[in-house]
Structures are given as structure tokens and as C-alpha cells.
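> example.struct
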């Protein structure tokens, strides 16, 4: 590892520490950006350093970092043990802030046959929200959510679908209220 990379990572760690101590909103945005940038490095996506940086930002409320931590828990990466419950917790935190990828991933977690918390109605509701007003940059995520939702619909009753639509409207209203007070 080059000296420049080591120094860059050290700066990220210092920035994360400052955010943790001071709770500065401007620094919070910077550490959220740092989490995303660090995770995009081929050798760093699942590193413990990425997990440390993202965890600080996730605890401060950054939805991108919350989504990253959820992914790490889902797959047991970045020094974090594979824990579906923790993954759902962090996906939900990001999803409730309107993070579309987290909404789709949360739906998947509720749809999984192996999950102790499997809930087709919740999965349907989150897939529905993940597909609302999808920006073009995330169209592939929306396509995956659409395909998953279609498979899910084939397993559901009409009553469950109706309940899922109602739940999606309720969750969306809660997200909108939350975003108004940000």
C-alpha cells in the first residue's frame, strides 16, 4: 500500500473522529462522502477501515452509510459478522430516509425464505416504495425491484397485496413527514 493511500485513510479516520466528537453537520456530509468514496475502492469495499468510517456516519444518520453498513452485515464483511437482524435494522434506517437501494434491499430481506422475520406484505410494501419516482441513475435497481415484486405477487393473495399497498402508503407518508423536518 502506498504512503499516499495510508495518509488518505488516516485523514478519513481523523475526519470520522471529529464528526463523532463534534457532531458537525458539515463534517457529517464529508464523512458520508468519505464512506462512499472509500467503499468504491476495489480493495477497500469490505475492509474493516471502510466499516469503521461508515459506522460513524451511519450512527449520525447518513443514509448512504447506513446502507453500506447494512450490506456489510448482510454478507458478513468489513469485520462485521453476518447478521440479518442488524442488516434489516440499518436498511430500515436508510430506507426511512428515502434511500431507494436500501428500500429494495429491505424488501428482499423480508422476502427471503430463510429469514425468521419473513413477511410478504412488508416485502411488497418496500418494493413498491423502491420503485416510486426512481431517478434514472438508479434504474437498474428499480428493474431488479420490479422483477422481485412480480415474483412476490405470484405468491401472495389479493388481500395481502391490498394490505401491502396500504402499508406502502402509510410508510411513504411517514417518510415524507420525516423529510420535511430534516
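> example.seq
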Amino acid at each position: 500500500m502506498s504512503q499516499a493511500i495510508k495518509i488518505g485513510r488516516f485523514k478519513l479516520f481523523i475526519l470520522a473522529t471529529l464528526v463523532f466528537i463534534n457532531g458537525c453537520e458539515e463534517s457529517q456530509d464529508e464523512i458520508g462522502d468519505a464512506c462512499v468514496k472509500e467503499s468504491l475502492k476495489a480493495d477497500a469495499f469490505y475492509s474493516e477501515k471502510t466499516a469503521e468510517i461508515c459506522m460513524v456516519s451511519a450512527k449520525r444518520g447518513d443514509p448512504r452509510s447506513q446502507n453500506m453498513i447494512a450490506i456489510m452485515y448482510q454478507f458478513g464483511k468489513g469485520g462485521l459478522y453476518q447478521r440479518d437482524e442488524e442488516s434489516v435494522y440499518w436498511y430500515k434506517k436508510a430506507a426511512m430516509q428515502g434511500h431507494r437501494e436500501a428500500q429494495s434491499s429491505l424488501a428482499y430481506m423480508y422476502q427471503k425464505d430463510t429469514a425468521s422475520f419473513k413477511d410478504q406484505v412488508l416485502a411488497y410494501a418496500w418494493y413498491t416504495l423502491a420503485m416510486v419516482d426512481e431517478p434514472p441513475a438508479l434504474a437498474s435497481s428499480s428493474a431488479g425491484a420490479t422483477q422481485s415484486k412480480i415474483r412476490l405477487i405470484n405468491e401472495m393473495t389479493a388481500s395481502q397485496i391490498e394490505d401491502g399497498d396500504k402499508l406502502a402508503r402509510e410508510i411513504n407518508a411517514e417518510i415524507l413527514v420525516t423529510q420535511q423536518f430534516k
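> remarks
Residues 98-182 form one domain.
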